[in-house]
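Practice problem: predict the structure.
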Amino acid sequence: MSTPLASIFGSGFLVVVPVLASAVGSWAPLAMIAVALVAFGVGAIVRHNIVCAEPVLETGEKRLTVIFERVSDVALVGAYVISICLYVHILSAFVLTGLGLDTEFNKSLMTSAVIGAITVIGLFGGLDPLERLESWALYLTLAILGILLAGFAWFDMDQAFRSGGFATIAWPGRSPWQVATIVAGTLIIVQGFETTRYLGGQFDAQTRIRAARWSQYFSLSVYVVFVTLAMPVVPVLNGEYDDNSLIALAGAVALWLPVPLIAAAALSQFSAAVADTLAAAANLREASSGRIAPRWGYLAVGLAAMALAWTGSTFTIIALASRAFAFYYLMQCVVAWSVCRNNRERMKFVAIGTVLAFVLIFAVPAG
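Answer:
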């Protein structure tokens, strides 16, 4: 479970509260539940493909399925490039806030510098030693999450006892269509469960299926509880939502809490960026039938992610990453449809694919 959990908690918990609060106000927990349900439905597609598509792909007996899977692999490389930029952009936002230097230019500059460093290390020495950070980053992230959950719960109880209720956030005045398109842009927050699909060389199918399912049970439950407990604290932001707003929320709970939060954000985002760089280079090599060596894959992925760092804010990159992963998941739906002979399951694939198509076409940034 550690591999999918490291991805799912990679950046989502750092930005989910301001994104959803800006979109739907105090209705954020319901929006989080909606995102969780969609994510679990997509996870079911991935788990289906572990059982049904992988044997077909191994034998190559269905050419159309193989083509769909190759398109999916290429789509995943693009999605990883965007997520690398997103992870490091969030890292920069949190670190620069701690230094009092948080500006859009500085974030883009630091993002490019960190991605450049990862690229150089990969190009000349390989990233395998840095990959060991993933477990430590996950442990630290879960520890900080636990502290934040306890802090928010304490804040909420204190507020309830003092005021006899909770402070609420005003509805932001958005239309149902605006809400749907903004919430659609948060799919990246729960991305990561698909990583078990690519661990076939290390674990058998049933182990990977259980890991994917239980990582989703755990992470999605934590996200819903996290957003729910954070809502009474959100009014301290006075309606100003940014990618580093969690720092202010943590400071409202305990003055010392922003420091470990920033440290956890830096380590987790750096680790997630390294993991996705490795995955993107590996997929690029596979998609090119081995013609692109890992080191040149690191270079191509790094240059693309550095260029992306200057294209917009964190919220813009979140929506873009959500659309990229929606396309990858949509292709996985097509792969699942191509190997399935059960019409009832095919209808499920179509339904989930329709939701993903909506994300792909209409998702927009918060703010």
